[in-house]
Amino acid sequence: MKSLSIYAVGLSALLFSACGSYQKVPYFQDLSDATEVSALAANVELLKLESGDKLSIVVSSALTPEAAAQYNLPLQSARIGAKDNNLSGATQTTSPFYVDTKGDIDFPILGKIRVAGLTREELAEQIQTALKTRKLLNDAVVTVEVLNHFVNVLGEVNRPGRVAIVKDNLTLLEAISQCGDLTITGERDNVLVMRKDGNKRRAYRVDLTQAHNVYASPAYQLKQDDVIYVRPNEKRQRQSTPVDNVWQSPATYLSITSVMVSVAVLISNIVKK
User: Fold this and answer.
1) Does domain 150-235 have CATH number 3.10.560.10?
2) Model's pTM, two decimal places?
């Protein structure tokens, strides 16, 4: 009877440990309904253009496409040393514009344009207005895309790597989702976001198990060149060697408990004799 008690205690300890680990896995444990989520996620900040950005700016016109073409910098697809046997069928795109250290771009005919601090939509509207005001192109349609806005996701995610910011904003949750979510051994309550702030890096800690912490964090809305790092939990860290892997297996503890019970029964029988 005593040996069974020992076995029960060992099994209970194992189950309690598993339950404790589970408490660190689910996201948003502090939420009770969807209304709170919508209120927390209401503020969305659009990314602003800055020095060093690489922009694709395409101007088009339905009435005068030839006039619009002069504002698009052509980029030949031919490679050095390759024979160009089909120039008419070669695909052409536009060459990118680079935002200089002063926050300007040099745009055909219009000259220097200050773009730093503007959103993509604001820059497109500014160019469109300038073309119309100067009577250069009345029906211009301007499309602006940023080609080098990325964040890097490292650590305990299923597909670590670089995530492109393809629209005007990218959230921490979206970046994690694009990387296939955290692994089961990733620390959800201690996600690190490192952000460039001038010549320095600022660190933010985000607890994904608490929605209020996620949405209130300055790191929820990601910025260009942010680095997201998901630490491995203690169990994962202890699995760095084969020996540690053995000791982290539930089967190992069950085997030890079984041996302890067998030894206890054997000793009990010997004492009775």
Assistant:
1) yes
2) 0.69
